[in-house]
Write a structure and sequence with these properties.
The complex is a heterodimer. Chain A is an alpha+beta fold. Chain A is built from 5 helices and 6 strands. Chains A and B meet through helix 1, strand 6 and helix 4 of A and helix 2 and helix 6 of B.
Chain lengths: 175, 247
């Protein structure tokens, strides 16, 4: 074996070893790398049902959002289409917060099963298009995104809010 | 093919031939891209005008990863076949890649505040890109940490290869884990999730950034080769003078 070939083998084997090692590490960390837990996670995993801080992610359920007259106190339901959790939040919500859109809230689970959030982050999907196109798509019935505005509810079909996979449930399907 | 350009003279001849074309294309593509991005493209149905950050953010993110892949491949070629030009190219690309990563992180942060409601979160996508930025810094620092340039090249090349593990992690972080960052819009199995009127400026900027990267790498590699040549000539002269005076 020439020296060149030996170096090639060393680099190749080293890369293979490294790739295997990182794959193992990432698999081991799988659960702790998640940024948020879905309502289904919280309903099914006992260790999440404590009063420690956690993030809850899902879709803001259609017609569940109510705002008190002070403009700061919000009440809405986060759902992953299987389970849902009611969230109470006092503060300013981001521009993209909408019914039918993704959201990640941080706070604590209350003993009564509701969630008290002290931070609300909006999650947006991967679709980008002009407003006119979005409206045309909805009119022709080809729309498969979430609701565009809070007023446009029901009709747009909540069954496929994020294209082909229910939001936040991709982990369940691989398990 | 590869061996042909391992020769610095041949590499320089090719680089000098490519440079004016790449420069022209850079100006043309980024100019057109900016025109579409900030003027002739529509606002997004959800994000409004803020979506225009995408035309800088996304190509920078692609270039951040592309530049690192380039460095990793160049480092492997340098380690295995000992081509001197390969290390020069890797070193030339590193600060450029680091800049693209920084632009990606900064514009992402500026985009995140109005859209998500936060400047920064420690989700898998954002964290892995931050790690990429530190890998660039580590690569540059390690390459310059040795008095013997050849040892610095070897050490930094090994670091570049190890760090390449991060690239698939960045790419697939949004698929493997729950993240705040949304999944890929362009590289999907079905149609891209970006409307054509927005896809055109995005792709113009992406190709423009690639050309810019080419231009900057050529300029930096040329300077580095010239620097090495000067050093070699100088040490040869000192060597000759001391030999002469000693005799």
């Amino acid at each position: 074996m020439t020296r060149k070939r030996r170096r090639l083998t060393v680099v190749f084997l080293g890369g293979l070893l490294l790739a295997t090692a990182s794959a193992l590490v990432l698999t081991a960390f799988e659960d702790s790398i998640v940024f948020f837990h879905t309502p289904t996670d919280i309903a099914t995993k006992k260790d999440l049902q404590s009063d420690r801080r956690l993030r809850l992610g899902g879709i803001v359920k259609e017609k569940s959002w109510s705002k008190k007259s002070d403009g700061l106190t919000h009440d809405f339901v986060v759902t992953d289409l299987t389970h849902e959790i009611r969230v109470a939040y006092k503060g300013i919500i981001p521009d993209l917060f909408r019914e039918g859109q993704g959201v990640v809230v941080e706070g604590r689970l209350l003993p009564d099963g509701n969630f008290r959030a002290d931070e609300v982050l909006a999650k947006h999907d991967e679709n980008y298009m002009p407003k006119e196109v979005a409206e045309a798509l909805k009119k022709s019935g080809q729309w498969k995104g979430g609701a565009v505005t809070g007023s446009e509810t029901g009709k747009t079909g909540g069954e496929k809010p994020y294209g082909d996979k229910p939001y936040g449930s991709q982990k369940e399907s691989t398990r | 093919m590869l061996h042909r350009f391992a020769n610095p003279t041949r590499f320089l001849r090719l680089a000098n031939a490519v440079l004016p074309w790449a420069t022209g294309l850079t100006i043309l593509l980024i100019g057109a891209g900016l025109y579409f991005a900030f003027g002739a493209s529509p606002a997004d149905y959800q994000q409004g005008e803020t979506v225009r950050i995408m035309y800088i953010h996304v190509p920078s993110a692609w270039m951040a990863m592309f530049a690192y892949a380039f460095i990793a491949v160049a480092s492997a070629v340098g380690l295995i076949w000992k081509h001197p030009v390969a290390h020069v190219c890797a070193l030339a690309a590193a600060p450029i890649g680091a800049c693209f990563t920084l632009i990606c992180l900064t514009t992402g942060s500026l985009w995140g505040k109005p859209m998500w409601g936060t400047w920064w979160v420690w989700d898998a996508r954002l964290t892995s890109v931050l790690v990429l930025f530190f890998l660039y810094l580590g690569f540059i620092a390690l390459a310059n940490a040795f008095d013997d340039a050849a040892r610095g090249e070897k050490a930094s090349a090994i670091l570049a290869l190890i760090g390449a593990v991060n690239l698939p992690i960045i790419k697939f972080s949004v698929d493997w884990w729950n993240t705040l960052h949304q999944p890929a819009s362009i590289s999907r199995i079905d149609m891209p999730a970006v409307h054509t009127s927005m896809l055109i400026p995005l792709l113009l900027m992406a190709v423009g950034f690639t050309m810019l990267f080419t231009v900057l790498v050529i300029i930096r590699a040329r300077a580095e080769l010239a620097d090495r040549r000067i050093n070699a000539l100088r040490s040869a002269r000192i060597h000759a003078e001391t030999a002469h005076s000693g005799a």
